[in-house]
Amino acid sequence: MSWLGPVLAVAGLAFRESARNRVLHALVGATLLMTGASVVFGWVSGDEQARQLKIVADLSLSAIALLGTIASIFLGTNLVYQEVERRTVYTVLARPIDRGGFIVGKYLGLAGVMAVAVAAMSAGFLLVYGLAGGRPSVGLLVALALTYVELAVVIGVAVFFSVAAHPIEGAVFAFVVALAGHVTADLQRLGADLARDASGVGVVVLEKVLYGAYVLLPNLENFNVRPHAAHGVAIDPAHAGLALVYAVVYVAILLGLATVVFRRKVL
Amino acid sequence: MGLARRAPVVVALAGAALLFPLQARLDARRTPPPDVLEVLPPRAILPVLTFGHAQTASNLLEIRATNFLMRWLEGMDRLRHEHISRLYDAILTLDPRDAGAYRRASTYFFSVADRSDLAREYLERGVDPARGVPADHPERWTLFVELASIELMGGLGAPEAERLERVRRGGELLMRAVGLPGAPPELETFAQRLATRGLSPLEALRYDEQRWLEAAKHGEPAMRAQAERRLIEARAALIAQALQLIADDVARQAGAPPADLDALWRFVDAAMRNQERNGGPVPAPLAVLREHGVEDPLGVGFRLEEGRVVAPGVDARRLQRLLEERFLRWRQARPGEVPTAEHLGLERAAPHLEVLIDEAGVRVVPR
Fold this sequence. Notes:
Number of strands of chain A: 0
CATH topology of the largest domain in chain B: Serine Threonine Protein Phosphatase 5, Tetratricopeptide repeat
Number of strands of chain B: 4
Number of domains of chain B: 3
Structural class of chain A: mainly alpha
Radius of gyration of chain B: 27 Å
Order of helices and strands of chain B: HHHHHHHHHHHHHEEHEE
Shape of chain B: globular
Oligomer: heterodimer
CATH superfamily of the largest domain in chain B: Tetratricopeptide repeat domain
C-alpha cells in the first residue's frame, strides 16, 4: 500500500497533464468527425442498410484505432522525457517513490486518459451507429474494448521509448512498432514458406528466428476483432480473454524494460 | 533490496518466456477474419476511401491477390476465379494506370484459368487510354503484345482459315505496339511477318513452348512449378505435331498411315539417318524430334490412333482443366445440379479419353 499511494499520485498528475493536452482533444474531435463522415460514405455506397451500417462500423472502428494509436504515441513518448527536460522529475523522485513506481504511475495516468478518450469516441460511434439504424451488438462492444486494450499496449511501447529515446525518435520508433504489430504474422508465414520450399540448417535457423520475432514483437492483431464485429461474426470469448492476458504480460515486459533503462539513466 | 532492484528484469524475462505459450494459444484459437472481398466497399466509393493513397491500396490488394493465387494454385479445380476477378477489378479501379496489373490479371486468366475472354477483356480495358494506361506509358506496348499472344494461342488447333485469321489479327495488334514508348525495334519485323505470312502450326507450338520455358524461370516456386507442368504439355503438343506431320508424310507416300507408333518411330529413325547421310537443311518436324529426342522423351505416352498422334495423359489434363472451369461456372449458376458432358460443351470426347462427371467435379482419364 505504501508503494501504491505515490504511484497513484504520479498517475493522477499524469492523467491531469495529458487530459489538458490539446493534441488529444484535436484527435478525439477528428475521430468523431470521421465517425460522422462515415454515415455519408455509407449513404453514397448504396441503398442497402446492412452495407451502410458495415461501412459506418468499419470506418469508425478503424478511425478510433488509428487516431487512438497516434494520440497514445504522441502523448506517451513525451511523458517521461518532458519531466526530465523540465527537471520536475527531481521533485517527484525526492518523494518516497522509486523510478519503477514513477514509470508505472506515468503509464497508468496515460492509460486512464486514453480510457476516457476511447470511451468518448466509442460513445460518439455508438450514437451515430444507432442513428443510422443499427443496434450496437456485443461484438461491437468487445471490438471497442479490445481496441482500448491494443492502445494500452501501444502506450507501453510509447512509454518505453519515452525513457529510451528523444520524443521525435521515440515517436517514430513507436509508430513503426505499432505498424509492424499488425503484420508480424507475415514473419511467421514467411519462415514457414521458406522451410517448405527449401531445406538446410540456415533455413531452419531463419525460420526459428522469424518465429521468435513474431512472438516477441507486439502482436497487435491479437486485439483486432474489428472486421468480425463489423460483419456480425461471433467473437470467441476465450480469444478475447487470452488477448487480455497477453496485453497484461506485454505491458509488464515493456514497463520492466523501461524501468531497467530509466534506472541506468543519469538524470 | 537486491530482489526489488532485480524485479523489473525478472518481470521482463518471465514475461518474454510467457509470450511463447500465450501466442501459441492465441494462434490456435484465431478465427480467420472475413474475406477481404467482403470488406471492400463498392467500386464507386473505393478511391474516395483511400484518401489520396489509391495506388498504395491497389498495391496492397494485389499482394492479397498474389497470396490468394499462391495458396490455391495447386488446387486448380477449386480455384476461385471470381475472387481474383473481383480483386483485380478493385485493384484497377484504384490504379487504372498500372500496366503490370492488367498484364498479370490477363496472364492469370489466360494461363491458369483458361479464360481467354476475361484475359482479353482486361487487356482491352488497359489499352484504352481514356480509362486505362495512358498513351505515353512506357509499358503500354506490352499489353498489345499480350493481346497478340492470346490471338496466336487461341488459333492453335483451330481450322486453318480461323488460325490464319487469328495470326493476321495478332500481327495487327503487334503493329499497334510498334513505335510506342519502350517497345523494342525488332517488334516491327516480327509483327509484319505475322500479319502477312502467319505461323505454321508447328511454329505456333514452338512459340508456345518458348513462352512456358520463359515462365518456368519465374522467381515464385509455385508459379515455376505451374509453368513447368504447362511446359511439359506444350512440348508434348509440339512433339505430337511433329510426329503427326511425319505420319501424314508417310501416309501420302505409302498410301496408308503407319500401322502403330513403333512403325512411325522407325520412319523417324530412318529419316534422321538419311538426313545425316545426305546433309542439307533439316525439315522442321525432324528438327523438333532431334532437339527433344525420340521414343517419348517426356514419358507422356504417345499413341497412334487411326492415323492421329495422341498423348492421352496430356490430352486428359488439358481437357480436364477446360471442363473444370466450365463445371465451376455451371455449379455457380445452378447450385446442386450435376451437369452432363453436353452441358459443359463437350459433344463427344476423343476415343482415348474418358470423361467422368459427378457431384465432386470432373475427372478426365486416359483410356
